[in-house]
Amino acid sequence: MEQSLVREGAIDAIPTVLGYASIGLACGIVSVNSGISPLEMSLMSLLVYAGSAQFVMCAMVLAGAPLVSIAVTVFFVNLRHFLLSLHTATMFQNNSLGSNLFIGSFLTDESYGVLLRKHLEDAAVSPDWMYGNNLASYTAWVLFTVLGNLIGSFIPNPEGFGLDFALVAMFVGIFAGQLEAMARQLPLKKIGLILLSVFVAYVGLVMVVSSYIAVLVATLIGCFVGVMVDGK
User: Fold this and answer.
1) What are phi and psi of 27, to 5 degrees?
2) Measured between alpha carbons, how far is 7 from 132 in angstroms, rounded to an integer?
3) In this structure, what is the dihedral angle of CA atoms 181, 190, 172, 69, given to the nearest 10 degrees?
4) What pLDDT shows up at residue 55?
5) What is the pLDDT of residues 105-138, one digit of tens each?
């Protein structure tokens, strides 16, 4: 393992780390109202490690939902990670299976977004760089969620601050940066067609299926349209 590449990956993950500072604190603070202790919060972040799913878990625990319902919901919320990991594996085709499993296990939407931007600049991304990108994000998430839980005990009504919207705000920031990088590589007409297909698919599907399934299928449709457009 090349330490310099790991360090470079960790440095490139700084925007994610800063985002996790706010999102992690918000998640930790919100979890207090669900009766989640600092130890439980740390175990949740270490083992589940999914921002949107952990917000959902906190809400379901507060509502007294059964464990099976929570597990199934978290599975569907995180189902998109199968797609992210499959695409990520194509960027490390010469990597070992164990290394790719390690990368996929710590992959998140944010570290995936950082990887895509890196891949646009350099087609041959090193696995060591990805280790640094993933582990810096993972460490930050665990630390800030636990810290947020500790701080949350001193805040009587965290929902009043709109902290649960922090996750959406971070996704918007990541998407904007990724879109900017794509605009330098692809014609705007192609990007617009892909985004339009995802939007139309999601709006249509959300009327008949759950939002989590709609997101997954709309993403698949967007990928299909992207491949077809790129082929032309």
Assistant:
1) -65, -45
2) 6
3) -120
4) 83
5) 999 988 998 998 888 888 788 999 999 999 999 9
Question: Is the pLDDT assigned to residue 232 strictly greater than 60?
Answer: no
User: Exposed, middle or buried by CB within 10 Å (0-12, 13-18, 19+), for 226?
Assistant: middle
Question: CA distances (Å), 61 to each of 53, 68, 95, 111, in order?
Answer: 12, 12, 40, 28
Query: How many other CB atoms sit within 10 Å of the CB of residue 182?
Result: 16
Q: What is the pLDDT of residues 1-55, one digit of tens each?
A: 678 889 999 999 998 998 888 888 888 988 888 889 999 999 999 999 988 788 8
Handedness of CA 179, 125, 22, 38 (dihedral sign): positive
Amino acid at 57: M
Residues 72 and 43 sit within 8 Å (Cβ to Cβ): no
Residue type, 80: R
Distances (CA, A) of 1 to 9, 18, 98: 12, 26, 14
Sign of the CA dihedral with 225 first, then 228, 230, and 232 last? negative
**With a threshold of 0.85, does the pTM exceed it?**
no
User: Residue type for 106, please?
Assistant: F
**Concatenated DSSP letters for 184-226?**
TTS-HHHHHHHHHHHHHHHHHHTTTS-HHHHHHHHHHHHHHHH
Please answer whether residues 130 and 13 qualify as being in contact, where contact means their C-beta atoms are separated by less than 8 angstroms: no
Classify 65 as helix, strand or coil.
Answer: coil
The beta strands (E) that lie in the chain are given as none
Measured CA to CA, the distance from residue 223 to residue 232 in angstroms comes to 14
